[in-house]
Amino acid sequence: MASHVNPTVRRRRLGQELRRLRELKGMTAEEVAERLLVSQSKISRLENGRRSISQRDVRDLCGVYEVDDRRIVESLMQMAKDSRQQGWWHAFGDIPYSVYIGLETEAASLRVYESLVVPGLLQTPRYARAVIPGVLPELPPDQLEKRTQVRLRRQERVEDPENPLRLWVVLDESALRRVVGGHAVMREQLEHLVEMSALPHVTVQVLPYDTGAHAGMSGTFSILEFDATSDSSVVYIEGVTSDLYLEKANDVNKYTIMYEHLRAQALNADQSREFIAAAAKRHADALS
Asked: Radius of gyration of the chain from Cα atoms?
């Protein structure tokens, strides 16, 4: 597969275009489903990019929407073909959050609020190998290593010399206090966090306990943004059995405002680095 083909993003862009064609035709998803003798949920999943789409699906939908321009039809069918190819993460087998990985791989910037653990993109290998089985205690050893390797591979976007991911993290103090894997692992992790936060495209802010109540107390979330104007921002909320992707402008705007409040309440970047370094020293002292 060509490295520039991202099947997740292709499905998303194709779904957006199919929704646009349906709306131009003035049809509801229910009406389209009835014409094609399929379920309404299938049409919805095709449009939101959560379901693989075949070239036959595209052809049938273009027929319903009376798309006469052959170039448009062929372009959409090529996108459908690309969307069925595999991203790098498929080499690791069935990854439950593969949709998110596809979006993260293509994103230009990522804003993360995390309340309990260091975000995966900034984790050290030893911290990752300690935190993953803690979160998923019944995970078999081979699955643990696979999850770890996927997490480390994802981190390549952060340090990509040609196209680094712009990363902004607001981190609750509890993530620095919770001893994951022991004091040696925590010292290494926090020292790595200080180092990464010094990169020009990475910002880490800490929300100390004495901040009190804040906008993130309802749960962690991430906001992904893309360079292509055709790709709207996505709010990602991770769940135990399923994940939530919010793409409606009103939803994204609400979470964007929440994030601005969190950034305003948190320590600034320099203060946060000092705070994290002090926490790393406490773990180092505990080892001596």
From this structure: 21
